[in-house]
Amino acid sequence: MGADSGVDCRACARTDVSGSDGIVARFTGLIRSGELPSGAEMPSIRGLAAELGVAPGTVRRAYGELESQGLIVTSAGRPSRVAEQEEAPCEVLAAVQVLVAAAHRQGVSRREVQDVIGTMWDMPAPEL
């Protein structure tokens, strides 16, 4: 666990993308899934860098990207926090969780899943 936030920082590195992109991808997933709720304190830059074995600048870049996406709020001298998030409808979140689990089991990359979703988004919605 992160010494100052309750976030399992080692889990942040478990992604197909390395460096700051990997940190952004992992925290984006944690925030959007609700595992990191609105208002949750983010690990300190130095603490997360030490746990992941990366330079503080790598984490700083990742936090900057997360802030530009509206996922976290940073303030000098204060811990970064998860920004207020709109909740995804439970049915959508459940479907996405099933999709992600299936993609992982089948070895389908994030990019491939995104491409398929992008293609299907523009198609008429199927009647279920």
UniProtKB/TrEMBL annotation:
Domain HTH gntR-type: 17-85
Molecular-function annotations in GO: DNA binding; DNA-binding transcription factor activity
Pfam families: GntR
InterPro entries for the chain: Tscrpt_reg_HTH_GntR, WH-like_DNA-bd_sf, WH_DNA-bd_sf
Keywords, sorted A to Z: DNA-binding, Transcription, Transcription regulation
Keyword Cell division (UniProt): no
Identification of the protein by name: GntR family transcriptional regulator
Organism annotation: Bifidobacterium callitrichidarum
